[in-house]
């Protein structure tokens, strides 16, 4: 094996950053144990990563230290609390035993009923969540297959602009059918009187590609207007019901060139 | 009573495995800022990021026995705990609900006018910004959003092998950038 080539293939960084599959990870560890120079490269990258993280440290809130310490202290203290209960001597007076027994059984019954109702409520919530997730996954798979069946799909990553640098969306443009799909990876939720609008740029001029009604589903694909030609795509935040929607009026949130 | 002000990595790991709270305090004081920076690169909401960081440290305390020094440095191990916790958080339903409830400020509607930025690109994200578009998307999806290579290959309709080679080439570039 050419270790230099192996080292510069990016596998070292993928391993350290936790981006390898289980199998690839084991393989890398194997190679590492046999080739000291691979291990050296790993340590070197770890050190520069650590240095980089140290230089970009952000002080956490001051009260967090105490919160964490009380969390770990209660964690360690818990098992030590077990004390042995002295065994009780048998009750000598037996006359009223059935009254206590009856009272205890009523309590037990009440407890059991409550517990059952509570469990069934929790079950319903879980079932609802599960069904939603399955439905969302089904939608997503359907959307993906639309893209996968079309080899002529172009993609534009749209990056956040100064007003919202963390924003990020992706446009998939099927050049044969001219369909345009938008995936919202991250956009702030608009206020109720605002909505996003997609624009295609042709000869430097914005062309309306449609208003976007954001749903809560993650990684949802939105189908927008067809585009025959486009050099770039952008999303602006606009006032709802602003009348003429053929020209952008609001700020640009994301922008991506093809 | 601070008998020990610095630890070597082995001493630190050994003391932590002995459940030494003083060593844990040292760990917190030295690394909480760096790990908070990592978490903040993924979870942008400060309050949530601080909850995530709390879980990260509790997990470090609980799982320190499983740390294996032959597989990497202590910091790398902690970094990956922090990254995974942050990604779990942004993928949770609770986080998505919280995000959607945040109204965005109505700023004077002048394109290009810079309102106070909501978040600033820090740390690895800032470095990431120097990569060219496509590589940047791949690293962002895999490192900051936690998609597997298979998922990326499906979503972007790029062959799995290509996803892998591109991510690796992007990471090699990242290495030279942070050196």
CATH class of the largest domain in chain A: Mainly Beta
> The biggest beta sheet of chain A, please?
8 strands, antiparallel
> Average pLDDT across residues of chain A?
80
Mean pLDDT of chain B: 80
CATH topology of the largest domain in chain B: Rna Polymerase Sigma Factor, Chain: A
Q: What form of chain A results from the Cα inertia axes? A: extended
Number of strands of chain A: 8
CATH topology of the largest domain in chain A: Immunoglobulin-like
CATH architecture of the largest domain in chain A: Sandwich
Largest sheet of chain B: none
Gyration radius of chain A (Cα, Å) is 30 Å
Structural class of chain A: alpha+beta
Q: Concise description?
A:
The complex is a heterodimer of chains A (258) and B (179). Chain A has 258 residues and is of the alpha+beta class. Chain A has six helices and eight strands, in the order H-H-H-H-H-H-E-E-E-E-E-E-E-E.
Overview of this structure, please?
The complex is a heterodimer of chains A (258) and B (179). Chain A is built from six helices and eight strands. By secondary structure, chain A is of the alpha+beta class. Chain A has three domains: 3-55, no CATH class; 100-149; 153-257, Immunoglobulin-like. Chain A has an eight-stranded antiparallel beta sheet with strand order 5-4-7-8-1-2-3-6, with helices on one face. In chain A, a hairpin with a 2-residue loop joins strand 4 and strand 5. In chain A, helix 3 (22-34) crosses helix 4. Residues 77-93 of chain A have low confidence and may be disordered. In chain B, helix 2 crosses helix 3 (46-63), helix 2 packs across helix 4 and helix 7 crosses helix 9. Chain B is built from nine helices and no strands. With 179 residues, chain B is mainly α. Chain B has two domains: 9-99, Rna Polymerase Sigma Factor, Chain: A (Orthogonal Bundle), CATH 1.10.1740; 123-178, Arc Repressor Mutant, subunit A (Orthogonal Bundle). The chains are: A alpha+beta (258), B mainly alpha (179).
